[in-house]
Design brief:
26% of the residues lie in helices and 20% in strands. The chain is an alpha+beta fold. It has a single domain, classed as HIT-like (HIT family, subunit A). The chain has a five-stranded antiparallel beta sheet, covered by helices on one side. The N and C termini lie far apart (35 Å). It binds adenosine monophosphate.
Length: 125
């Protein structure tokens, strides 16, 4: 299911294929409802993607339609991945749709840290 005008879930997106085991990933953490793995193109020393195992396109889709158990498990996984970075600090980021440049249409949170990250947003030229 999708909401807010986003296209329906594409079952062949890269993260769906990772979840099916068709594409390898460098696994960081797996929980009943979430998978965390290293970003293939890291922007910082730590760059982990946390994805729900369910088929959700966006935050609106996930938060409106996932079960409470899925949502709790997902955010606990995000917290667990971020925990080792708490001392130095880190950033959680989620891109949704065209304006945010979302590349993979499966809801995910980036956990980025391990160096000073600079300003939150860079304005395009
Ligand atoms: P976004 O732009 O928020 O949709 O981010 C998608 C992220 O997925 C990017 O940071 C990519 O580097 C990352 N990515 C794409 N393909 C893979 C892959 N096969 N394994 C791990 N990360 C990937």
């Amino acid at each position: 299911m999708s909401v807010n005008g986003l296209p329906p879930y594409d079952t062949n997106n890269i993260f769906a294929r990772i979840l099916r085991g068709e594409i390898p990933c460098k696994r960081v953490l797996e929980t009943p409802h979430a998978l965390a793995f290293d970003d293939i193109n890291p922007l910082a020393p730590t760059h982990v993607l946390v994805i729900p195992k369910g088929a959700y396109v966006s935050a609106a889709d996930f938060h409106a339609t996932a079960t409470d158990a899925e949502i709790a498990d997902f955010y606990r996984a995000v917290g667990q991945v971020g925990a080792p970075l708490e001392t130095g600090g880190y950033r959680l980021l989620a891109n949704m749709g065209h304006h945010a440049g979302q590349e993979v249409p499966h809801f995910h949170v980036h956990v980025v840290g391990g160096r000073a990250l600079g300003p939150m947003l860079k304005t395009p030229a």
